[in-house]
Specification:
heterodimer, A: 405 residues, alpha+beta, five-stranded antiparallel beta sheet, four-stranded antiparallel beta sheet, 13 helices, 39% helix, globular, B: 54 residues
């Protein structure tokens, strides 16, 4: 542990053999990425992992792959792919990816609004291998951590339990600040949709987020005013929902959070891991900045690895996606060496939010609440008694299958 | 998260926000798509994941 950094309780930090330290060091020594050799090596690691799991978990791995492939490729293709090719599944998946390319389908996962995260490598062969890697790696990594958990498989497709209310409730539980919920677009009565306001909207700019979507799908960023694309008051927000076909999709109306003084538009991506013994560890902290639009970091053009103990950007993360491999710092003040005070606290809160309620680590969570909770403003009290908690307890959610995200 | 033991990997999105003395969290995500980039990044990482979870 790195006692001096304020990172007490954050597993992995300061432990040389931890995945956090290994990945951070790898980033700091980073060479050229997304060459043919680099992508081929990532594919090779997937194949090694496949045979490792085939060897040690031959039956449960098969059962997992059958269900995963049926979900992602459809019943017929999923069954044929898994049953026919199981001992040589990487070969079967290569044929599938190439076959999709030949008939004009995208071989990999691409969202509705592609961005830098989905830009392929420049070389056509590396691009094909990258699509192949994107088909192989998610199921293998998922089985490695979760074995054949059915709910986990379902959530690889659609976040029916872990939607925005779920995360907000867990974050609030440990005293983390979340954007104020100003209202909720929902079915007020059978067949009638409208906004259930929990705040008297005045001149606030707002953000709309669909409850169970990700990758920015359904997001809207609305300034208050009379200009085009702006809203002025509750009625125009409701009109926005109706005009943009949100009916049938529950959505949150949130306050628009802006970056602190001295920071550009940015976000942090903190990945935590639960180890088999129950310890929660930090894996990576990545900073997304240099955004081409002020509304969303989905338009980022620069990614950096953050040393959470130093609270500083210490390396590029060209390894993350091909679009970042040629990255050169545009805004040097927000590049390597840039200080990000508060990220240690963010890591503590992330670890605390992942721990189960009432766990033996509850004392840490309480300590985090004491040390990290913002002043009990009206806004925060409002967040602490949310509709989201009631919704969290409503477990009877439909198991519908949506279009691929 | 007792009811979600499968949530072993989570990606948390936050910002250092104006007027706040603590980070503001947008949400968490089941990191099923984020994790593989770390697992298969190097032989060292893969070996470590296999030893821990394999």
């Amino acid at each position: 542990m790195c006692q001096a950094s304020g990172l007490k309780g954050v597993g992995g930090v300061g432990v040389p053999s931890s995945l956090y330290e290994r990945t951070l060091r790898l980033s700091e020594e980073e060479g050229e990425r997304f060459t043919l050799l680099d992508v081929a090596q990532r594919v090779a690691r997937c194949v090694v992992a496949f045979y490792w799991m085939l060897l040690f978990y031959p039956i449960s791995f098969f059962w997992f792959l059958l269900r995963y492939n049926m979900l992602w490729e459809g019943n017929l293709v999923g069954v044929l792919l898994t049953v026919w090719f199981y001992p040589v599944l990487p070969l079967g998946m290569l044929l599938l990816v190439v076959g999709k390319k030949v008939i004009g389908m995208d071989g990999g996962y691409v969202p509705a609004n592609p961005n830098i995260f989905f830009t392929p490598p420049k070389s056509p062969l590396a691009a094909l291998l990258w699509d192949y890697y994107k088909a192989l790696s998610p199921p293998f990594a998922q089985f490695l951590l979760n074995r054949g958990d059915s709910t986990a498989i379902a959530h690889s497709w659609w976040d029916h339990e872990t939607h925005k209310d779920f995360w907000r409730a867990h974050l609030e539980r440990v005293g983390a600040r979340v954007p104020r919920a100003l209202g909720r677009w929902c079915e007020l009565e059978a067949g009638r949709w409208g906004v259930q306001w929990s705040y008297e909207l005045k001149t606030e700019d707002i953000v709309i987020k669909v409850k169970d979507e990700s990758n920015g799908v359904g997001d809207a960023f609305l300034l208050q005013g009379d200009g085009p694309g702006m809203v002025s008051g509750k009625d125009s927000v409701e009109a926005f929902f109706r005009d943009n076909e949100y009916e049938g999709k529950e959505a949150l109306v949130l306050e628009w959070i802006r970056p602190a003084e001295g920071q550009e538009v940015h976000s942090f991506d903190i990945v935590t891991l639960a180890k088999p013994d129950g310890e929660i560890q930090l894996l990576t902290v990545i900073y997304w900045g240099d955004c081409s639009e002020a509304t969303t970091t989905h338009t980022t053009r620069a990614g950096y690895c953050v040393d959470a103990a130093k609270e500083e950007l210490t390396a590029t993360c060209k390894w993350y996606a091909p679009g970042f491999s040629p990255m050169v710092p545009v805004r040097k003040q927000y590049a390597i060496g840039h200080k990000v005070p508060g990220i240690a606290k963010a890591c503590q809160l992330s670890i605390g939010a992942r721990r189960p309620c009432g766990s033996t680590h509850a004392s840490l969570a309480r300590a985090i609440v004491r040390t990290c909770a913002p002043p009990a403003t009206h806004a925060h009290r409002e967040c602490a008694t949310p509709l989201s908690r009631r919704l969290l307890s409503r477990r009877a959610r439909s198991q519908r299958r949506t279009s691929r995200r | 998260m007792t009811a979600q033991p499968w949530l072993r990997m989570i990606g948390w999105d936050c910002i250092m926000a104006r007027g706040e003395d603590a980070p503001v969290f947008f949400e968490g995500n089941y990191a099923q798509m984020r994790l593989p980039r770390r697992v298969f990044l190097s032989w060292d990482n893969l070996s470590s994941f296999l030893r821990t979870y394999g």
